[in-house]
Amino acid sequence: MADATGGALGVRYVGTRVNRVEDARLVTGRGTYVDDVVLPGMLHACFVRSPFPRAAIRGIDTSAALALPGVRFVFTAADLNPDVKEQWHTSMGPMGPETPRPPLAEGEARFAGDPVALVVAESRAVAEDAADLVDVDYDPLPAVVDYLQAESTDALVHEAHGSNVVGEINGLPASALEDAFSSAAHVVRETIHQQAYAAVPMEARGLLVDCSRATGDLTIYAATQAPHEVRLFCARLLGIPEHRVRVVMRDTGGGFGQKVMVQRDEMCVMLAAPKVGAPLKWVEDRRENLLAAGKARQEHGDVTMAFDADGLIQAVHIDFVADSGAYPTPWPVMTSAAVGMIFPGPYRVPRSGFSAKAIYTNTVGRAAYRGPWQFESLAREMMLDISARRIGMDPVELRRRNLLHRDELPYRNPNGMTYDSISPLETFEQALEMLDYDGFRAEQAAARAAGRYLGVGVSNYVEPSTPGFGYYGTEAATIRVEPSGTVNVYIAGGSTGNSLETTVVQLTADALGVRIEDVNTIQGDTAVTGFGAGAAGSRSGSMTAGAVGETATILRERIRAIAAHKLEAAVDDIELSESRASVRGSPSVGISLAEIAGLAYFQPQALPPGMPAGLEASARYTAAAPSIWVNATHVCTCEVDVETGDVTLLRYIVSEDCGPMINPNVVEGQIAGGVAQGIGGVLYEHLAYDEDGNPVATTFMDYLVPTATEIPVIEYGHIETPSPGPGGYKGVGEGGAIGAPPAVVNAVADAVSPFGVTVTRLPLTPSRITALLEEGDVP
């Protein structure tokens, strides 16, 4: 194999199961998270949070808290909130509708957990004790809890907004499809409901802000997915130049979208830090995370699907409504619209329409979570199974008749989304072959005859990864060959469990023809890395590949030119391999990268005429496509105990097309994590509120997450269709969480189908399953 300049490459690291370079640090407990950072004189912050879902704040007495030894400050909105009431922006623009986003609740608390005051003390324990002593005079008000009733109630979450509708976007209305629905052989209508659940990263949110007394410069240690976004946001919030804010992202214990944007709690810490005269740390505990870090899902869709006599889709429509909570972030209307736009999925759908609406409630705000538009796949795939049973057709056969074929690509869905470089039918057939679908159906029939209820669920999805618009569409890299010959790569993002460290090292080692052990990466420090959007939208693999490729091309040319000059050979005859440049056909004639670096730094007079000293290059990649499409098929089998409602997952298969894999271990790890979250969202997790708006799941005793004993061994199949992006790579971070829920739901629904019940509402807890079965017919 040859590189882009003709130089033959030696060991190829990309595409192999290279061990993760960060694991030695992380598995031995030497990772550095925000709570591990300790600075001299550091103070600790703790929030006073509203116990009411909605209440007027009549007064706040901080005297008892301030009298507690060790307490330094108690901030309220009057002390902390900026004088200018404006819509706080991200680098992508406004974070939502034109409603205020006060750092601390001002005048009114709008959900249980709303931050009302900030206590600063010499230890976290003292700060927590002092928070209990802050006396807030609340006047409870009627709360808007049920988003289904929010439009018709007189109570408003934000009176200044004028309604409880955050916003809405309408595509083709259902009335425009009435001719297709009225003439179709089969029309199926159902309302699909999904409950609220949350990202629950292993490390909750955290921030340590160190404001220099001498200069006023800020150094922020952040648990974030986007350190440069934190820097820009803080500079705008405090009204200071960007160069006076440095953000350091070391290890971050998961983000899943929750840590992409700066939320109100982090705003408070940023605003308070310059006032306290010492480094200020806030680390969220698990209760706070479940109470105030943001929810996801909590939505429903009224779905209509029309089929002809052969089961071919004629038209589809979805009316989608999402609960956005009190302070949603980011852009809830945009992500709601994405549900409608992508709803046709990887199927041949001639006509489609949608409406999408986001609703305010007095609950925690909606936050981004792994596949924010995931509902489109859940609703569509559940409806395909429901439709297949009503038509009298096997769900697999119904899908097979409607799935897009490669020879139909590029394919423009009726909502204007153009798919290319995907393989829906191929992943579908591969997954079914891995299962032995016909064999399972025979096993299922035998089990039913013996009184056991097995089920199989299938789901297909297609999603746009690697958004190529705005600041998401560009990424920078700097590569420096040090005088020792060691290669250091500087990338904006950092470690959130997505193994960007290993990915970048593999890409760079191949791009420069160096040994992988000679490559290091420096990430997540805004003082030394180029601006980048961080980990979001399954963008990291493709975008870092582009940035490394652009930069390595520049540096490789210089390395080969220096080697050719030293070896008195033609540049085109220089090959780079194993951290060495050699002459093609004469491998013994060569020079090491360390020697080349020595010439570049210490003997600039020995370089080719016009060659600059040193070996460092920076470049920026800009995506050409607005998105890169990814697809997969998930297959799940289960057994349902019809007496107890307990669900046991038996097998789980994923056939994924994420293009060529940079590291199969990393790809499969990303899929496995998403699948586990999807399983949790169907069978266990529920961020529930009672009818008055009180949260009832604020610990892991109440908010159940799956453990290793509940997750089956995941079996992987891979189809590789190169994308139009760098290296043909695609995003893979969100797919597991998108494809898993409908596969699990459909498996459970299939298992209980002899009882004549229709599954339309999540989560599928044992009590819900037994209640469904009690309504059904005994087979």
Keywords for this entry:
28% helix, 7-stranded mixed sheet, 30 strands, disordered N terminus, 5-stranded mixed sheet, 779 residues, single chain, globular, alpha+beta
Give a short summary of the structure.
Helices cover 28% and strands 25% of the residues. The chain has 779 residues and is an alpha+beta fold. Strand 11 (206-211) and strand 12 (218-222) form a beta hairpin.
Describe it.
The protein has about 775 residues and is α+β, with helices and mostly antiparallel strands. It contains 19 helices and 30 strands. Strand 16, helix 9 and strand 17 form a beta-alpha-beta unit. It is globular.
Instruction: Work out the helicity level.
Output: 25-40%
Which word captures the global form? globular
Q: Which regions contain 5 or more consecutive residues with pLDDT less than 50?
A: 1-10
How many β strands by DSSP?
30
Q: Roughly how many Å is the radius of gyration? A: 28 Å
Distance between the termini: 62 Å
Count every helix, treating DSSP H or I runs of 4 or more residues as helices. Answer: 19
Output mean pLDDT: 95
| Main sheet strand line-up | 3-7-1-14-11-12-13
The largest sheet, given as strand count, sense and whether it forms a barrel, is: 7 strands, mixed
> Structural class of the helix and strand makeup?
alpha+beta
**Percentage beta strand:** 25-35%
